[in-house]
Amino acid sequence: MNFIQTIMILAIISIWIATGLGLMILFSATHFWLTTIKKERQKVFRLATYPKITIVVPAHNEEVVIAQTIESIMNLNYPKTQLELLLYADNCQDDTYNQIISVVSLEKYKHISAQVIQRTGTGGKAGVLNDALSIATGEWICVYDADAMPEKNALHFLVEKALENPEKYGAVFGRNKTRNYKQNFLTRCINLEIVNTQRIHHVGLWHLFKIGRIPGTNFIIKTDFVKHIGGWDNGALTEDTAISFKIMQSGKLIALAHNSEAFQQEPETVSAYYHQRKRWAKGNYQVILDNFKHLFDRSVWRIKWEVFYYISTFFWFNAAIVISDIIFVANIVTWGISMFNPSTHILFTIGSNNIELANLLMINWFLMVGIYLLQINIALASQFGQLTVKNLSVALISYVTYAQLFIVVSVVSVVSVLLDHILHRDGTKWYKTKRFGD
């Protein structure tokens, strides 16, 4: 067996391992929904206590969406006397500040404690959160992005989950839904990704391993605890992933409140999507590299799992898929040429002919497509109104379009991170996601 054949076999085996991990998480999520839907509570019951919550909204040039978000927060089903709002217009060059003021100053909201702060500091979103941490008086800090409109009971369910085990839970996160998913094909694809991630991946990991990951929005974290672990990493491209690792390293859990929902706006153009996801990917890669050492020290097992999972997903499995795609396309092209020129040899083969390779590649292809569609279908079925013929059609098309775009973003991001280290350049440049009017 030569080197090329070895690489081919390793790529195929890697995809099988990735498929196995995906199935494990899928089965866990399916079990959760089958056992939870029967017990799903339709009513909001009074809590034993209502801790004071400081809600922080970082907003940088968000005039298009900020007013709707602030109104949604003002209308949360939570005792208003137990709310403190810290609303930041962070280094804005637009009308964000005035838009916030226009909502906060309404007579019906005057009984809610709200500070509107024009900030000129550094550190991006993490810098805003650290500034808020220094003045917050709430027992828990709740974070909502400027485009995230929480459902009226979202905060109630977050606090309800936190009160189940306040000593063990350092943070609690909810789910996010796409509020503009009907806009175009791209937003429908993003919606499928979000539904799959929220309804399958997050649920499966929490149900099976009690592993949670803080999203960028719709979560609460204990104020004293986040101070104890040093707050957020200023300038981090993905401050949510970075602090998730900090929380796990401390031994605390990040609990999932599956019934807490917020509606966020997603990119409506390929350019906006590409730049947003490239920033996310680079930020996650940097966090992985910073935490790689925990694979070999005495860290808690959950952080070891997360490091392994991220490394596997973003580096190992992505590389295997890229190699598999190259093999597949190259062989298709050379096979087509050989029909007209019999002397042309298939580039990548195993054994004396191509039967073995063709069978393996075909099995791989069916496995990946099958698991992908199964995840999407179960995710859609678990969320009211999402299991439609149109969404199922989009899911099938997105596999050969949108899903492949993510691989391109991942590869470009890996190269960019490597060049940042080699050339000693600053790779923390923040890309502001473009907002779109409803």
UniProtKB/TrEMBL annotation:
Pfam families, A to Z: Glyco_tranf_2_3 (PF13641)
Q: Which InterPro entries match?
A: Nucleotide-diphossugar_trans
**Keywords, alphabetical:** Glycosyltransferase, Membrane, Transferase, Transmembrane, Transmembrane helix
Annotated GO MF terms: glycosyltransferase activity
Q: Where are the transmembrane segments?
A: 6-34, 307-337, 357-380, 392-419
Recorded hits in PANTHER family, A to Z, give: POLY-BETA-1,6-N-ACETYL-D-GLUCOSAMINE SYNTHASE (PTHR43630)
Similarity comment: family membership = Belongs to the glycosyltransferase 2 family.
Q: What is this protein called?
A: Glycosyl transferase
